[in-house]
Amino acid sequence: MRLRYPVAFVLTLLAASCGARTGLLAPEEEEASVDAKPDVHDAHEEDAMIEEDASEEDVVFPDVPIISDCPDAGATLVYVLGSANELYSFYPPTLAFTSIGTITCPAKSSPNSMAVTRSGIAFTNFLDGNLYEISTENAACKATTYVPNQDNVTTYGMGYAGLPDGGEQLYVSENGSKTAIGLGFIDTTSFTLNFIGAFQPQQFNCELSGTGAGQLFGFCPFGSGSYLIEINPTNAAVSSSHQLSAGSNNTSFAFAFWGGDFWIFTGNGQSTVTEYDPVAQKETTVATAPIEIVGAGVSTCAPLSL
Fold first, then answer.
1. Quick one: how far is CA 260 from the chain centroid?
2. What average pLDDT score do residues 81-108 get?
3. How far is 143 from 130, CA to CA, in rounded Å?
4. Helix (H/G/I), strand (E/B), else coil: 160
């Protein structure tokens, strides 16, 4: 029997830091709309756990985010990636999905997970272990120098969380065959994977999402249902855990924290969107996505509450 803790998600209202954004914000005047539903592929393999083309020359990829305040936090978007390489934005207040484009990464594999920097650049892990940079402005993609299978880890869930010095860190939940190996982080300058430690207690394979206040959360599906956990990013200790009905390790899954709630994307073919309120401990099905979502990312500029 796995040890579980009562839910204790305390969402501290701290000011997040942010950077120059590339396609990070919701439109100011036009309401986002859902495009025609594209064709999608089958879900990626269980043991991995989980429209217009743009070229690399169309966008500048900043090496280092420019740190500043985030007065426009409420206008930030969640970005979602489909199993057929479709990149969409999602705006939680209106539940609107908007197509950005189809990513054209130099890959023969399929996307597995995604995280978004404060500067609007998405890092995406593919099922073959490669890591790519994607622009949230126009879906342009380029390879990184990340070497796959570092520490014998091919796939991982991923998400950014703020650091005490005002920066941010790309954390990863290293996937095993059924349960997670543990928590690590990727240095996106040297593109090295660094292991922090095994989850305490052990967890199923998880996706990650964080906040500018330094909180780190995991969404960890099992056979029928999931656990939503809060993780200490310094030592991989699980400080709280709550069981949800949303999710399954037999379907694609992703999630993001925005505005005090969790936005969970689960399913094959098309993803169901579930909003989870951690204060009321309430799950609500709120929408159906036009794609099968395999990755979701949100800037740490996103609001902690509304």
1. 16
2. 96
3. 8
4. strand
- Give CA–CA dist 55/38, Å, rounded: 20
C-beta of residue 216 within 8 angstroms of C-beta of residue 171: yes
Per residue in 114-124, is it b (16+ CB within 10 Å) or e — as a string?
Answer: bbbbbbbbbbb
- For 44-63, how does the pLDDT look when each residue is reduced to its tens digit (9 = 90+)? 333 433 333 434 444 444 44
* Helix, strand or coil, per DSSP, at residue 73: helix
Neighbours of 187 (CB within 10 A): 12
In angstroms, the first-to-last Cα distance of the chain is 37
In the structure encoding, which two tokens stand for residue 75, read together? 């206008």
**Cα–Cα distance between 240 and 220 in angstroms, integer?**
13
For residue 44, give Cα distances in angstroms to 203, 253, 264.
20, 10, 17
3-state DSSP assignment of residue 49: helix
Question: Cβ–Cβ contacts within 10 Å for residue 41, how many?
Answer: 14
User: For residues 253 and 227, is the Cβ–Cβ distance under 8 A?
Assistant: no
Each residue's pLDDT tens digit, 203-242:
999 999 999 999 999 999 999 999 999 999 999 999 999 9
In contact, 161 and 168? CB cutoff 8 Å: yes
Radius of gyration of the chain (CA): 17
The domains of the chain, with CATH numbers, are: 17-60+72-298 (2.120.10)
Give which of 186, 302, 223 is closest to 255, Cα–Cα.
302
β-pairing, 238-244 with 252-258? Answer: unpaired
Q: What is the three-class DSSP state of 64?
A: coil
Per 3-state DSSP, the chain is made up of helix, strand and coil in percentages (nearest 5) of 5, 45, 50
C-alpha angle 32/257/273, rounded to 5°? 55
Closest CA to 34 of 77, 84, 86, 96: 96
Alpha carbon of residue 246 to chain centroid? 17
